[in-house]
Amino acid sequence: MIEMVDKNAEILLDFVQNNVMQCRAGALEIGALPAEWQPLGEELNRLAAWMQEYERFAAGLSQGELATVSASRENRICWPLKELRSNLAHLTWQTRQVAKGDYGQRVDFLGEFADSFNTMVAQLREREEYLNLTTKRMAAKAEALEEVNSLLIHVMEHTRDWVVVQDAATEEVLFQNRPAEANASCGAPCTPGMVEKFNDGLLHLLPTLKTGEKPAVLKLCRKTLQVDSFSMDWRGHNAVVYIIADITRQRAEEKKMESYAYTDPLTGLNNRRFCMMKLEEMVRRGKDFTLCFADLDGLKFVNDVCGHREGDRYILAAAQALRQSFCSGELLCRVGGDEFVVLAEHCTEEVMHERMGQVSGLLQSNRTADGRPMGLSYGAVNSCCSQATNYEELLTLADQKMYMNKGQRKLYAQPEENIGT
């Protein structure tokens, strides 16, 4: 009897070890057991089947096979796995919803994983809101830039100035408001070569300018151009806008006005304003020069007796004599009604006296309307040889010498040559 019990126990133990400990599939032979042991054998077979089903279910879940794995309804061992599969299936659906933009999904199961999932979804929601806001801002900015560009193009197409937009990196011309022919014209018909030279020359010069600084002035093909420039985003390009104004005529007018401001209208010599400005500058810079102050003899007498037209002829004769006796490097100025100043660099007083002697000789060859000879008195002072500390003192010294010369000339003049003071 005892041997029979031991044999049955050995059969059951071997079955349990094969199915549980060594995972060997196989059914227990119920017929090999006594009748009273057979119910236990049947339950062990059921348990072995459930465990094999559990193993297959767990393996499938570990591979993510949520739709294909299953277990029998009565297998109580697999119930937790079924619940896990249900949760994973629902989590898969929620993940798909999140991927579609549904950030209201939350997980209230799976412990720490649920916390991580919910945090991830919240961050995705925040990032999408930020991206949406950024996209709206960029769209509004792009729309505004397009409006500005449209307005800018409209303005540029109707401005008199030439407008060129170049890519800052490649120098490609992105826009110009009119063809080069209209800009190259100098008031006369332009040949194709002139147009090409002007256009190419300008487009190569533009990138060399410093953007955003004060307007640059360029001289090209007999034209004077003023160029303003600034950087901007031009339809997706980092671009530089150049506004080019033709100021050739304006500069000519300015030069003419400057000439009027510094020129004596009667003689065409430099006037008193220009003379004083240059004299002060030469003294300040310590230049070596000789100043000669000259005064026409008896101009008032000529004006009173012969009239101002004759007086003007006297002044013009003196101006002509000065031009004939001095080179273009000396500054010849009329600083008063009957007063003239000569400024000559690197010239000694002796040389100045020789030149003024020529002026006096030329002037005396002319006669006034009443037959008297024209003449002038003068005084010369060298800037480096005098004690003057400023241009006013230098001018005073020359004026004093002029009056000394005038007195000497009156002393030695013949009565008929003396036409007044």
Whole-number mean pLDDT: 82
Percent of residues in helices comes to 40-55%
Q: Can you count the helices?
A: 12
SSE arrangement, N to C? HHHHEEHHEEEHHEHHEEHEH
How many beta-strand runs?
9
Strand % is 5-15%
The helix-and-strand class reads alpha+beta
Distance between the termini: 175 Å
Q: Main sheet: which strands, in order across?
A: 2-1-5-4-3
- Any idea what the radius of gyration is? 55 Å
Give the overall shape.
rod-shaped
Largest sheet: 5 strands, antiparallel
What are the segments in which pLDDT stays under 50 over at least 5 consecutive residues? Answer: none
Structure description:
The structure is a single chain. By secondary structure, the chain is of the alpha+beta class. The strands form 2 sheets. The chain has a 5-stranded antiparallel β-sheet. It has a 4-stranded antiparallel β-sheet with strand order 7-8-6-9, with helices on both faces. A hairpin with a 2-residue loop joins strand 3 and strand 4. The chain is rod-shaped. The mean pLDDT is 82.
